[in-house]
Amino acid sequence: MTGGAGYIGAHVVRAFGEVGLPTVVLDDLSSGHAQFVPEGVPLVRASVVDTAAVRAALAKHRVTGVVHLAGFKYAGVSVQRPLHTYEQNVTGTAHLLEAMAAEGVEQIVFSSSAAVYGTPDVDTVTEQTATSPESPYGESKLIGEWLLRDQGRASGLRHTSLRYFNVVGSGAPDLYDSSPHNLFPLVLDALTSGRTPRINGTDYATPDGTCVRDYVHVADLATSHVAAAQALASGAALDPVYNLGSGDGLSVRQIMTTVAQVTGIDFEPEIADRRPGDPARIVASGEAAARDLDWRMRHTAEQMVASAWDAHRRAHGTPA
């Protein structure tokens, strides 16, 4: 599992362990954490751009399938660092596929992103919605999907790509989101440091004027990775892409209100200007994934926030 020491990857590793599927993690720890990898799970510290290291890991551990979560995931930063983004996400995926072909590994689940859609012109995104990425990150994820498609045509590689939306929460108290760009850690960091969380823009064409996003719990996401890998291993037919979305969004202000309720910290968010390129609403249907990948929303907004808050406090030594 590439990127298995990261926030999402570590949850996927544990979900595999819960059903008795052995894993090996390959991660360069540029944003992951070695302590996220469970005891007994091998950790290979290497980058996916290092084809020789990937081949060695595949061979040594007799890998039969890959879940590819490694990558540079910051859409905003990718605009300033396009070459780095393409190297990690496009070149890295190409090298991984090269190593897999050399070692006879013929199935892969790919971590894609809602960023492939850009600013959709529909209320609810489906897998048939046109892709129009607006950042090097979104472009790199779409190219990754193309690489899998083309390698599948050329070699028979069995694959599927899971398009994530806003992944939040925690499935275990020792696993937390350490991203400096995601809403939940930004809000929780602000509260624990005595600052006031910020809302960027309150004049959008949404019910309360703030952006609406599709928030999904990381443990639910992990469960569908297990289902996808098991389906590929069994020879079941899967679609090339799936949206892991709720079908219903929450506004940024609704998240702030829920955070105040769950944490017991009463606050009124600061209001700032809109961020360039932020669409008013991105919500996706998860019907196809529900049909094929055991996808469903098992957590309420309150449970998402509470699990993230518990993990955040543990990581930062904040008393309950």
UniProtKB/TrEMBL annotation:
<comment type="pathway">
    <text>Carbohydrate metabolism; galactose metabolism.</text>
</comment>
<feature type="domain" description="NAD-dependent epimerase/dehydratase">
    <location>
        <begin position="1"/>
        <end position="245"/>
    </location>
</feature>
<keyword id="KW-0520">NAD</keyword>
<dbReference type="Pfam" id="PF01370">
    <property type="entry name" value="Epimerase"/>
</dbReference>
<protein>
    <recommendedName>
        <fullName>UDP-glucose 4-epimerase</fullName>
        <ecNumber>5.1.3.2</ecNumber>
    </recommendedName>
</protein>
<dbReference type="InterPro" id="IPR036291">
    <property type="entry name" value="NAD(P)-bd_dom_sf"/>
</dbReference>
<dbReference type="InterPro" id="IPR001509">
    <property type="entry name" value="Epimerase_deHydtase"/>
</dbReference>
<comment type="similarity">
    <text>Belongs to the NAD(P)-dependent epimerase/dehydratase family.</text>
</comment>
<keyword id="KW-0119">Carbohydrate metabolism</keyword>
<keyword id="KW-0413">Isomerase</keyword>
<dbReference type="InterPro" id="IPR005886">
    <property type="entry name" value="UDP_G4E"/>
</dbReference>
